[in-house]
Amino acid sequence: MSYSTHTLLVFLATSALYLQSAAASVLPFSSIEEPLADQRYRFIDRFAVDEHNQVSQDDFIQAWQQRYDALSASADGRVTEAAFVAFEMTELEQQLLDARESHVRQTLNRFNALDRDNDGFISWEEYQASGQRIFNRFDTTQSGVVRAGDPEPEARRRVQTTTQSQNERRRVRSLLAMPTTHNNQGFLTMFAGNEQQVTLEQFEQQRRSIYDRTDLNGDGLVSRGEYLDEFMGRVGQREEDVRQAHRELAQQVFRQMDREQRGWLSQQDFVAYGLAVFKLWDTTNEQQISEAQPLPEQEPQLQLVARQR
Ligand SMILES: [Ca+2]
Ligand SMILES: [Ca+2]
């Protein structure tokens, strides 16, 4: 029995890929939203043996079988749905831990940048001054209103956050990527609600309410701990969404793998599924996957992803 291409394509689109650097996760896709090109990049990056830009079918099958062995060992030889999902969720927790630690570091860096006089607190004046700079940056027409379709601000110099060994690797989204004001649309999504524009006054009102909300003890200052709590609270909600999406994805993958609906996976089930996924990316049927190939054409049908709140 083989998987229908249609089913797999729908599934591929729904699940929007897999996990970064995944230790032993066996999901071929992940539970966050991502363009097909990035999903393919992750797939290649994960299974390529000596180069980062292509993966052969033989190498893939070998790695995929090893994955079944790890899964089977974790399940005492009987890979039921519950065992499969538990395996995946354990893998996910490690990924979440890494992503969370990264957020803590970045949040503390942001705190230090905002606390200009370095007294250990962000005063409203410091916060407001930062807001003013952000608004001015996006108010590219200098009209006092940021509107949808305004020219994009000049790109800021990218802060180098990757380590040396990762320098040649492409950037893909963090599992716990949070909304950012990286462009006009991102700015409006955060500050304009359902409107297509936001005035400086409206923007400042929202900044003030965020500031007051963050000042948990109400002493008129935002401490390092308060700043971290506010942001990590939102990260925590995102984590819950990712867990939920990941669990649903693992269940769906299991049911697709379990072709005869026996309630457990054989190695043959597992390999057949992996091969079908491989062929999905190998759009030109070369027994290898590279970024030079055309992407699958199917558009997303369902969205089984962790939505931003
Ligand atoms: Ca300060
Ligand atoms: Ca406070």
Using the alpha-carbon principal axes, give the shape. elongated
For the termini, the CA-CA separation is 40 Å
Characterize the main sheet: 2 strands, antiparallel
What is the average per-residue confidence, as pLDDT, rounded to a whole number?
Answer: 83
Bound molecules: calcium ion
Q: Strands of the largest sheet, in order across it?
A: 1-8
Percentage of residues in strands: 5-15%
Residue runs with pLDDT of under 50 for 5 or more positions: 1-23, 159-167, 299-309
Q: Which structural class fits the helix and strand makeup?
A: mainly alpha
CA radius of gyration is 23 Å
At a glance:
The protein is mainly α and 309 residues long. It has helices at 5-15, 36-47, 57-74, 81-114, 124-138, 184-191, 200-214, 224-257, 267-281, and strands at 54-56, 79-80, 121-122, 145-147, 197-199, 222-223, 264-265, 288-290.
Structure explained in plain terms:
This protein has 309 residues and is mainly α. It has a domain of 162 residues. Helices cover 52% and strands 6% of the residues. It contains 9 helices and 8 strands. The strands form 4 sheets. Strands 1-8 form a two-stranded antiparallel ribbon. Strands 2-7 form a two-stranded antiparallel ribbon. A two-stranded antiparallel ribbon has the order 3-6. The chain is elongated and about 65 Å long. The chain starts with a helix and ends in a 19-residue tail after the last strand. The protein binds calcium ion (2 copies). The site of one calcium ion (CA) has 7 residues, from strand 6. The site of one calcium ion (CA) has 7 residues, from strand 3.
